[in-house]
Amino acid sequence: LHMGKTMKEDLTVVVKYIKQLYPPEFNVFSIYAELYHNYFASQTKKSAESHLEDKDIYLLLSWVHNFYPKDMRKDHVLAEELEKVQLGSLLPSSLNKELEKKYLDREEATIKTLLSRCLDKEIQRWKEEEEPEKFSGHFQSELLGIFVIQSIYSGQQRAKDISTAVGEELSHRLWKELPAFLKSYKDAFEDFKEKSKKHRYYKPIVIASVNNCWNFRDYTEKNMSEKDDNKASILSTLSDIENSGFDVLLQQLFVQLK
């Protein structure tokens, strides 16, 4: 941040006050810009090659893809001059790819672990005989119906903020994780449905599980391509959960009708 701020402020001084003191053929601005860029790039490379925490990787990629090329080099005072210099990226392509892969692997693992923990906590709530939360008067699980989707969406947005390509890659990876998560949810729900019929909040939990599917379906329909095989798998699992829940809720009605 200090290097970026210094480079931006100093090059602004060069443009406004120093450049005109030299003959045009001296290319004073180009010399300053290249020297600053080369130093900045060397420090970025040094950082990228060291041990980095997850937040550091994200910040470094943000500098490479966003802050440096967009916020600094597109600055209204500097943009016109910098376009003539062709400075390139802060990182070599191979090192940038390596850093992106490391970020994607860690982000995918983090969100996968988060989803698993959400399901474990929800199952534990069932065991402790807690009544499901209500949102707008309807039973629904905050963990499964809301937090899981928010976690996936937030991860996708963070990656997209680095670059479109990184965002698309993480989205593709997380869309592969979602079917597996929902199948685990389905298995847990089926187990609860069969073994916990005397549960104090049996019916509210079944209703909440059906209602949770709506958010997952809405998210899937809006964000996934029809060509994506994961979409069909997700929608199929959601239908299975809903139909399984409907069977329970309709049993009493069927008995009354009979």
From TrEMBL:
Superkingdom: Eukaryota
Q: Pfam families attached here? A: Sec6
One GO cellular component term = exocyst
- What species does this protein belong to? Nestor notabilis (Kea)
GO molecular function list: SNARE binding
Q: Which InterPro entries would you find in this protein's record?
A: EXOC3/Sec6
One Gene Ontology BP term is: exocytosis
What is the taxonomic lineage of the source species?
Eukaryota, Metazoa, Chordata, Craniata, Vertebrata
Question: Could you identify this protein by its name?
Answer: Tumor necrosis factor alpha-induced protein 2
